[in-house]
Structure formats: structure tokens, C-alpha cells
Design goal:
Length: about 575
């Protein structure tokens, strides 16, 4: 057989090399393009929902997009764009409108939907459209008080199908998807109402560290705070979070799981900040009230406005201690004040405060027990069907809760200690004219009580008291040790004999600073919002940082037959 000529093979070799190099280049380019596509972030936008139902559910038009936005957000992977939905932005009702909405915001995906509420039935239909015209649909049937779990289920399905994202809860535990508000009634629920389970999966004595939608947590902030307020101070329909440290007031917004700084107001160098409260105004732009004391212990209260991303001073150096309480019979927020009485603390008498030009002047004096001051009391409205009317709750000097009726007759006192504030004012305990050696006797300290909001969370006419219970072994030994390493938020109700426990949170690690009931993340759902300082060392004094915890309050009740989770059996 004749062997091929070498001269015929030589021209073929360059062609093979070129072909191989071309194939390799195309493969590399394809891989590079695929890697670039994988690294590219996806963007989405959520349109206002169309809500068909009673006017009481009209807020879902804006709150459902906010809920879906927070649940679809995936750091460095999936981000929301164009979510500033003004009042002139109308709900999307068809695919053509959805494409127009998506294109205007230059998003990869648009989410829109409808909610139909008829009696006790609610249907939620959600659709997703991508830039290529492909659509996905999800639907859920639920009771009106089960909208939050239904929306969570829809967002989980969209995350799986569109973004290949497996919910952390489902990935960590195959049985986790079947748990909804599974709590241990033997631990959490009072014996007089043991058949009902309330509010939030975090409201147990303690539990696992798994992160889910039952609690949101901010990143640590590089300062130690002394107070917090959550309010819509500028009247734009969205709440801001105000955090107070020793020298400054910081404004934040909470969006996409992050605390976004918005502004700061610094007080004079000789001032020490005590607490912060808010006072609503008919114009929608309320007051932010900060109590401070100067280096001589004289009170200087500041009243601030927050508008257009900036603080402005309405009044400064008001020589009164100020607070905001809800007074009977209408329980509207009322500005109250009390004068200082150096070297003691307060002058007798708590007054309503009225604005007169650029100053505050005292009005009528409140009828309170002698042990009450402007910081340590709250009124608990009468519950539906309750005999005896409203109750006055006073935090005593030893931090027990004493209950009075409307005629100021004592009814009961708790054995548990509450509040646990670490912000104190030094007072002179000696009698006037009597001298003492400061080197031998330490001045007494009055710790400014934390707020004690009275709330009707279930809107069933039954009022409860929200209080903080600090937990510390060292504080039981040392009277002035106030950096409690952990605490619990308790919900108390009046059972006809005394204040009794209805539910409590799991133990919250860190020193409690402040807490309130407010929609901190602006998703239309009320939250238990908690501010803590981290407890980094044995005494928890140095290198502390501030964190904000948000517990969404699911008003729905679970079935009385719901079995407790296995983790509760070991608590």
C-alpha cells in the first residue's frame, strides 16, 4: 500500500491548529460570558397591588409590595429598584401595564398582583414578568389574618423558581416548612388563657439561633445608645428610627434589612442625653423630644423637628424634664413636664405642658400618687367587659409594678422587677441643712424608667402592658450594676387580682436600651422594635455597640392543638 506523501500532510497541520485554537477561544468566551452572567445582579420591582375588599384592608395596596420587596431581596444577588411608590402610582392590573411599569424602572423582573377579600376568605394572586416576556404565577387562599404567612409562602416560591434560592429555614430543617407559630403553651401562655397562642414564633422562653422572618436584626452600629424612638417625624408616611447616644441623636431608615443613616444632631459638649420621645402633631410633622442634663445636673430639654433629611431646633434648653404619655379619658398623646429640685430630683407635681410662643408653660397638674413622677407611670385602659375601669401602673423605686384604680386606691404589686434602665441621675439623699461627707457616702441614683406602652395588639378590646424584665445575677448582688447581659419583653394583663403574664419573648442577649410597638420596617405590619447594646465583656461596659431587633407581630392565632416544637422540650 502506498504511504501518503509528507508533502500532502504539511498544509493540513496549520488548518488543524487554527481550528483547535478557534474552538478553544469560543469555549473560553462562552465560559467567560456565563461567569459574567452569573456574577451579574438581577433586579426587580414590585407594583402596587389591586385590593378588592373592605376599606380596612386598603393599606395592603402599599404594604404587600413592601413585604415582597424585603423577602425577595438577596444581598449581592437580587436587588429592588424603583420602589419609591408615590400616591400617584396606580396598581397594575394586566401584563401590558406590568411591562410598562418594568420598563420605566429598567428592572429585570416586575411583580404585581391582586387581593380579593370576601368575608373570611382572602385570595392572593401574584404574577412575575421578566424582560423577555416570560411570566410566572403564584396564588394562595388564606383567612385575612393569615396574609403574612401566605405572602411568605409566595415569596419563597418565587425565590426558588426564579433565583434558585432555597430558604435558609427549609435548608436547615426539612420539618421547618410545616411550623407556623409553634409554641409551647405550658411555658408561654398563662393558665387562665392556655388555649390561645399569640403573635410571633420568637415569643418563647428561648430557642434556636436559626434566622427567619420572625425577627430582623440590624448590623452593629459603632456607638453605645441610651434611647430609641420610632416615628414618622416628617409626615411622609414612613417611619424613621432615631437612636440617641450620650451626645447625639442619629436618624435612620430601615430598608432591605439594612439601617440606612439619614442625619445627625449633636448636643452641646457639656450635655448628657437621657432619653428620646416623640409627640405627634396635626400637621403630620411631630416633635422629637430629647431630655438632657448639663454638667451641673440641671435639665435641658430639646424639641426638634425632622424634615427633608435634616434636624431643626424648635426649642432648646427647656428647664423642665419632659415626657409624652396617653391620658384618660381619650388617651391622646400628651406632653407633660416636671421641674427639677436640686439637690433633690423632682419638685412635687406633674403638669401638662402647653406651647406659648417659643416657650413651654405648665398647665393643669395631674392627679397622681405621691410616689409617681413624669417618667414612671402609665395608664392601662379598661378592657372590654372589665369591671372597675382604667388602671394606673406605677414603677416603684425598687422597680416593682404597683397598680392603682382610677381613684388612686392601691390594688396590687408585682413580685417581679421590671424596667432595668442603666441611665441614672444622681440625687442627694440627705435632709436639707444636714451635711455629709461625700467621701463616705455615695449619692443615691434614680434610674429613669423605660417606657411601658399599653396596647391592644389583637384589637379585641383587651388591653395589655408591655414591659422589660432584666435578667442578671450580678445585679442581684451589686445594687448599682445596671449593664444587664440579657432580658425579656413581657406582655402583662389585668386578671382582676393583679398583673399576669400573657406572653414573653425568648431571652434577648444584650443590655436592653429601649423598645416600642411601631412599624419600623414600613411593611404595614406592627413590630416590637427593640434597641440593645451588645454585652462584649464580663461587665459589659467597654466596646459596646448598638443593635436594633424587629419582631413582626402576626396578629393571627394558631390552632390550640399545635404541637410544641422539639426544641421547646429542652427549655
Amino acid at each position: 500500500m502506498k504511504r501518503p506523501s509528507r508533502r500532502l500532510l504539511l498544509p493540513v497541520l496549520p488548518l488543524l491548529v487554527v481550528a483547535l485554537l478557534s474552538a478553544a477561544t469560543q469555549t473560553f468566551a462562552a465560559q467567560k460570558e456565563s461567569a459574567s452572567a452569573a456574577a451579574r445582579k438581577s433586579t426587580f420591582t414590585v407594583a402596587p397591588f389591586s385590593v378588592q375588599g373592605p376599606p380596612a384592608y386598603a393599606h395592603l395596596e402599599r404594604s404587600l409590595p413592601q413585604m415582597l420587596t424585603s423577602r425577595l431581596y438577596w444581598k449581592d444577588r437580587v436587588e429592588a429598584v424603583g420602589q419609591d411608590l408615590g400616591s400617584n402610582v396606580k396598581p397594575v392590573t394586566d401584563q401590558a401595564g406590568a411591562e410598562k411599569f418594568r420598563a420605566a424602572r429598567k428592572a429585570d423582573y416586575v411583580v404585581w398582583g391582586t387581593v380579593n377579600i370576601i368575608g373570611d376568605n382572602c385570595s392572593i394572586d401574584v404574577r412575575v414578568l421578566d424582560k423577555n416576556g416570560k411570566t410566572w404565577a403564584q396564588a394562595r387562599e388564606a383567612a385575612p389574618n393569615q396574609i403574612i404567612p401566605a405572602v411568605s409562602g409566595i415569596s419563597d416560591a418565587v425565590n426558588r423558581e426564579l433565583f434558585n434560592r432555597v430558604p435558609q429555614q427549609a435548608a436547615s430543617s426539612p420539618q421547618a416548612q410545616g411550623r407556623v407559630n409553634q409554641m409551647n403553651p405550658d411555658i408561654m401562655i398563662n393558665e387562665t388563657s392556655s388555649r390561645e397562642v399569640y403573635l410571633n414564633p420568637q415569643f418563647r422562653y428561648s430557642g434556636s439561633s436559626a434566622q427567619d422572618d420572625s425577627r430582623l436584626r440590624s448590623a452593629p452600629l459603632n456607638f453605645s445608645s441610651v434611647g430609641m424612638e420610632v416615628t414618622d417625624a416628617d409626615g411622609d408616611g414612613k417611619n424613621e428610627i432615631f437612636l440617641l447616644d450620650d451626645r447625639a441623636l442619629h436618624a435612620y431608615s430601615f430598608s432591605a434589612g439594612q439601617m440606612q443613616p439619614k442625619g445627625e444632631f449633636r448636643f452641646p459638649a457639656n450635655s448628657t442625653c437621657l432619653n428620646v420621645r416623640s409627640m405627634p402633631h396635626a400637621s403630620g410633622k411631630g416633635w422629637i423630644i430629647v431630655n438632657t442634663v448639663d454638667s451641673g445636673g440641671v435639665p435641658n430639654a430639646y424639641i426638634l423637628n425632622w424634615s427633608d433629611g435634616q434636624f431643626s431646633e424648635v426649642m432648646g434648653r427647656v428647664r423642665w424634664y419632659l415626657n409624652v404619655v396617653k391620658l384618660p379619658p381619650n388617651y391622646r398623646p400628651t406632653l407633660i413636664g416636671q421641674e427639677a429640685n436640686p439637690p433633690r430630683l423632682f419638685r412635687m407635681g406633674v403638669h401638662e405642658m402647653n406651647r406659648q410662643g417659643d416657650t413651654l408653660v405648665p398647665g393643669g397638674q395631674l392627679n397622681l400618687p405621691t410616689e409617681a413622677n413624669l417618667f414612671n407611670f402609665t395608664w392601662l385602659p379598661a378592657s372590654k367587659g372589665e369591671i372597675g375601669g382604667e388602671k394606673l401602673i406605677v414603677l416603684t423605686r425598687d422597680e416593682s409594678l404597683r397598680t392603682y384604680n382610677s381613684k388612686l386606691n392601691r390594688l396590687a404589686v408585682t413580685s417581679e422587677k421590671y424596667s432595668g434602665s442603666s441611665t441614672g441621675l444622681a440625687i442627694d439623699p440627705s435632709m436639707p441643712g444636714m451635711q455629709h461627707d461625700n467621701r463616705q457616702q455615695l449619692p443615691s441614683v434614680f434610674y429613669i424608667p423605660m417606657r411601658m406602652p399599653a396596647v391592644d395588639l389583637e384589637r379585641d378590646g383587651v388591653w395589655k402592658l408591655i414591659v422589660n424584665r432584666p435578667i442578671s445575677t450580678a445585679a442581684q448582688i451589686f445594687d448599682r450594676y445596671r449593664y444587664f447581659p440579657q432580658s425579656e419583653i413581657h406582655c402583662l394583663f389585668w386578671d382582676g387580682v393583679g398583673l399576669n403574664l400573657q406572653w414573653k419573648t425568648r431571652r434577648i442577649k444584650g443590655s436592653m436600651v429601649d423598645y416600642t410597638i411601631a412599624d419600623a420596617d414600613n411593611d404595614g405590619i406592627p413590630d416590637l422594635t427593640v434597641c440593645i447594646n451588645t454585652h462584649p465583656g464580663a461587665l459589659g461596659v467597654s466596646a459596646r455597640k448598638t443593635m436594633v431587633l424587629i419582631y413582626p407581630l402576626d396578629i393571627s392565632k394558631t390552632s390550640p392543638g399545635t404541637a410544641p416544637d422539639k426544641s421547646d422540650m429542652y427549655e
